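Justification of computing resources. Each target in the renewal requires a structure prediction run like the one illustrated here; the chain below, 199 residues long, is used simply to show the kind of job we budget for.
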Amino acid sequence: MLTLTSPVEIWAHRLPAGLKLAALALGTMGLFALQAPLPLAATAAATAALYASGGTRFATTGLRLMRPLWPFVLIVGLWHLWSADLAGGAAILLRLLSAVALANFVTMTTRLSDMIAVFQTLARPLAPLGLPPRRLALAMALVIRFIPVMLDRLDQISQSWTARSSRRPGWRVLVPATLAALDDADRAAEALRARGGAG
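Resulting structure tokens:
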């Protein structure tokens, strides 16, 4: 669960974590400032070029991390197709794909310890309020790491259901997905305790 950093080291691994997270924040705000599909398509192409700069193996891993997003892409696309709002649907989908891909890129090229250090620095002003910066930083980093892992786990459970039943999984996968989340959280807690806790 803590090893989403890509084993294929590329140029982005050498950039400071703070710089990458700041660029991600600004890039995401820029995506929401864009409304027309054409500039959003250019942004999506630039994001794809970022992945391509890391080579085939890196780009393939990044594409695999996007897999849990495809059901949402399908639903949004079909809805806008049905409502005849093709331009609006294209803008939403391009914005969604670019934002998630950029976040995954930062996650793949940044070590968890570096993220924690950045978040800890940002959380220092909250220390006088009784909020430990180290624990807040660790919680934020774990949330960033946990979301794609849980989406992937949900996809695996859905595929297992589909292989064993002709019915659609739907709400039936919620219980095993919840149990899997609790199990992963328990393992993460044990790993943190073994390493001395959150500090």
